[in-house]
Please model this.
Amino acid sequence: MTIPYVRLPTLPRPRARHVAQATTVLALAGVIYGVAAGVSRLAREAKRYRAASDVLYRRWTRIPAIVGPGMLRIHSRLRDVMTNQPPIVLVHGRGIASAWFVPLAARLSKDAPVFAPDLPGHGRSDPDARDLTVPELAQALGHWMEAMGLRGAVVVGHGIGCQVAVNAVAARPELASQVVLVAPGGNVQEGVVLPRHLACPVTFVRGARDRFVQRHWAERLALASGGAEPVTVAGSSRTMHHEDPDALAAIIVGLGASGERGRQREPA
Model:
C-alpha cells in the first residue's frame, strides 16, 4: 500500500520590511508614551508652581541706578509674615529671576518672612544703562535691601547669585546674619571676595546629584572660607529648590533660628 504524499503549507517568512515597520511602530509608541509622561509631569509642576505663586505677592521698589542716571524700579516676590525668624533674602543668578525661587519661597514663608528680588536687568526689573557686573549687581542688591528695610537677614544665593550675595554682604556686613550659598558655581575669586572675609557664618549647600558643583569643590570652598562642612541634600541635583524645597527650606530656616538664638545670647 502506497501512502500518499501530502505537502503541508508553510508559513511565510517575515520580510525585512515588515520587521522594520514593527520596530518603527514600537519606537513611535515609546516616544508617544514618553511625551505623554513628560506632559503629565509638566502639568503637575505647573499646578504646583501656580499654587506656590499664589502664596507670594509682588512689590516694586526704587533704587539709584548703578552705572546710569536716575532710578531703577526693582520688582520682587515676597511674603512678610510675623515670626521670630530673621528675614530670608533669595538671590538669583544671571539669566533668571525671582520666579526661579517660587516653590522654595512659598515653603519658606511658612516659617519666616521671605523676599526674592529681580536684580536689575532680570525678570520685571528695570535694566541699567548696561549689563551689570557681579560687584555692581551686589551693589544694587544692597540698595534694594536698604530700601526694603532688611537687615540681619539670612541671605541665600544660588549659582552666580552666591557671588552677588558674598559681595553685597562683604561691602555691607549689617545686611546679613547668615549667608547660605546653594550650588555655588564659577571662580569665587573672580570679581568677588572670598566668603572668609565675611563677618557672619557661611554655609555651603549642594545636591548629592549635582554634577557641576561636586563634593570636592564644595569642600574646597568651605575650607577656603573657614566655614563648616558643606551640607548635602540627598537625591537632589542643582535645582534642589524645585526638586525638594522642603529639605532646602529646613536647612535655611534652621540656620536662621540658630543665628537668632546666638544674637539673643549676646550681652547688651
In short: Strands lie at 57-64, 71-79, 88-91, 114-117, 153-158, 176-182, 202-207, 231-233. Residues 218 and 230 are 6 Å apart (CA to CA). Confidence is low (pLDDT under 50) at residues 188-192, 261-268.
